[in-house]
From TrEMBL:
Name of the molecule in the record: Glutamine amidotransferase
Keywords in alphabetical order: Glutamine amidotransferase, Ligase, Transferase
The keyword Transferase is annotated on this UniProt entry: yes
Record has Glycoprotein as a keyword: no
Length: 245
């Protein structure tokens, strides 16, 4: 089998390692079946459709819709690299699944309007499949129910999509929770790579990044502990199963 590639942009080693472990666990891939490209450190390796089965882009502390003058050099460098990768993904029809930051980057690359109108605080939300979502091969492989709980926490979201993009799942506050372009290029607003314990751990690491009030952090965590969000991680296993080449 050709390996998959996990793209990470988190500079914090402990958070990056936790994210790596979660993607390995939820995809069911072995270490050598999931290459790790940390764009906060190195350029993406010289790999194309003939070398890999697909690409998974995880969340990030970066916000793609921020004004360019406010972005750090690291963010500008990472986004330039991601857009170059997405050029290749689309041109070579490489399977792609982007989570949270992935919806901002793939959306921007494809001409969507990404802004802060539909941001959501850290928490659990109800996600509902569209008719197209119910027929989508990746979602069917994952056996997602028509309505499920997704874990979110984002400052930006899709406001409008280009006509060639297909909405696969929606939510009350953030209308585009998942979309597809092409035949197998996907992005989700919710986090398929996180379960309740891991999103709480992630949130502690980013408590001062504006996703929630630090004073309310433990209340937010208590509310999350009362939720069940076991469905979204099945997307990762389905992605690895469906597109293993």
């Amino acid at each position: 089998m050709k390996p998959f590639v996990q793209i990470a942009t988190r500079p914090e080693d402990d958070v990056a390692l936790t994210e790596r472990a979660a993607v390995l666990a939820f995809t069911g891939l072995a270490e050598d079946e999931l290459l790790w490209a940390r764009l906060d450190r190195d350029p993406f390796p010289d790999l194309g459709a003939e070398d890999i089965s697909g690409i998974i882009l995880c969340g990030s502390p970066f916000t793609v819709s921020d004004a360019a003058r406010t972005k750090s050099a690291a963010q500008i460098k990472a986004e330039k690299e991601i857009f170059r990768i997405l050029d290749q993904v689309i041109a070579q029809d490489i399977p792609f699944l982007g989570a949270c930051y992935g919806i901002g980057t793939l959306g921007t690359h494809q001409g969507a309007l990404i802004d802060k109108v539909h941001g959501e605080p850290l928490g659990a939300v109800e996600v509902t499949l569209t008719e197209a979502g119910r027929q989508d091969p990746l979602i069917r492989e994952a056996r997602l129910p028509e309505t499920f709980t997704g874990l979110v926490g984002h400052k930006e979201a899709v406001n409008t999509l280009p006509e060639h993009a297909t909405v696969l799942a929606s939510g009350k506050t953030s209308p585009v929770q998942m979309f597809r372009v092409g035949t197998r290029q996907y992005a989700t607003q919710f986090h398929p790579e996180l379960d309740i314990p891991s999103i709480i751990e992630r949130a502690r690491a980013y408590r001062d990044h504006g996703y929630f009030s630090p004073d309310e952090m433990e209340d937010v965590f208590d509310a999350l502990r009362g939720e069940t969000a076991d469905d979204p991680p099945r997307l990762l296993r389905a992605f690895a199963t469906l597109y293993a080449g």
